[in-house]
Amino acid sequence: MAVMPSGSGGRIELPENVVVSRLDALANWCRKNSLWPMPFSTACCGIELMATGAAKHDLARFGAEVFRFSPRQCDLMIVAGRVVMKMLPVLQRIWQQMHEPKWCISMGACASTGGVFDTYAVVQGIDRFIPVDMYVPGCPPRPEQLIQAIIDLQDKIQREGTITGREFDTVGRQLRKRALVEITGHAAIDASRNPVLQRELAAAAEAITSRT
Ligand code: SF4
Fold this sequence. Notes:
With 212 residues, the chain is an alpha/beta fold. The protein has helices at residues 23-32, 45-53, 88-97, 109-113, 143-160, 170-173, 178-184, 195-211, and strands at residues 37-41, 76-80, 103-107, 134-136.
């Protein structure tokens, strides 16, 4: 327990090299400055994603340049490009394999809304299936826009995070979207070989049933 010396006017003199902070703030400071992206690049937006990591834009300045292709080493999913229905189980599997707390940036019109590909085969926004923290508009967005999204995400992590990371819990954060259930009625997604997707679909169906 800190003892306040008499005559100190309510102020505590800290020894040299001692800094006082909250554990939440410290954990979030570490998290936000060591984001490891998982690139999920499927189309032209991926080229801008590559440019963001290259020398001219130098994402390393913001502590988020360590791109990994192993989901277990990553905590930031960047989806760049359109995602087709056949690819969706792969996207979900990779997302599930990433550590908590984890975040997602949807880069470009296609990832966020399906873009100009308003067809049965293209996912009309990845946020129907995984939670998205930042949306980057454009077709394609410039690297500066992606960098701004990463900076904004870092702000969000610093402001909202706690040491336990409960606020980033995927299940709580993921809005149960009607699309998940509607798709089960059709053969758009074959979930027979994907237990993760089966659980997601069952949970979404249950959530919507309990609401109605
Ligand atoms: S948003 Fe534009 S640039 Fe990006 S994947 Fe779609 S068509 Fe390509």
